[in-house]
Amino acid sequence: xxxxxxxxxxxxxxxxxxxxxxxxxxxxxxxxxxxxxxxxxxxxxxxxxxxxxxxxxxxxxxxxxxxxxxxxxxxxxxxxxxxxxxxxxxxxxxxxxxxxxxxxxxxxxxxxxxxxxxxxxxxxxxxxxxxxxxxxxxxxxxxxxxxxxxxxxxxxxxxxxxxxxxxxxxxxxxxxxxxxxxxxxxxxxxxxxxxxxxxxxxxxxxxxxxxxxxxxxxxxxxxxxxxxxxxxxxxxxxxxxxxxxxxxxxxxxxxxxxxxxxxxxxxxxxxxxxxx
Length: 276
Ligand SMILES: [Zn+2]
Ligand SMILES: [Zn+2]
Known about the structure:
Metallo-beta-lactamase, Chain A; 10 helices
């Protein structure tokens, strides 16, 4: 293990203890829970702000800590979920109740977070690596957010976020969304429309190597839709990207990687035995 990895590990442990948000631009910050990112939109400390995704269960306290570091006691105006998977919705209910704020999700995702439908189980035959194997143990049971969750408007607008719009990026799940702001070409790719760490690598969970990858294979439901979604995101030509897994990326290298991913998605990102 070299010094760079040691530094990163130390940084990770530090983050874990103190739950500090990292600022990406003036009004976008994120906090990395062990498995996934939560994202805060809104300038600190006084602007209204929105929380995107809520990490795993049992992260309520650490997420609260990270948010309070940035906004003091000011609660968000709402929570928006990119999709219903357990690693993005785990602490949603507890946080919404704590702050007394609404949760929004795309209508096509609604059944999965109100107990009506379960996601298909993780597929250990794709992607390889320990995380793929472990994926069969990940919960697919529906979340129960009924009473606190509302469907997003169907015209791409986002409540309380005038400068942003959402883009449907199905494939990983049917109602997966990404968020985009034209003025600085900022893309929040979920969620899991793309990833900036190799999703099937346990090593990458601790030492993220920055590339642009496709969605986590073991949970992706519809590969042809996922291909289209990645192409849609590449056509936006974002200057900043943050995904649900991995570190934020920006600039020319990221753009090239995203374009490469979109152009070669069927050959490179779709697991061979899933191409049909
Ligand atoms: Zn997911
Ligand atoms: Zn995820």
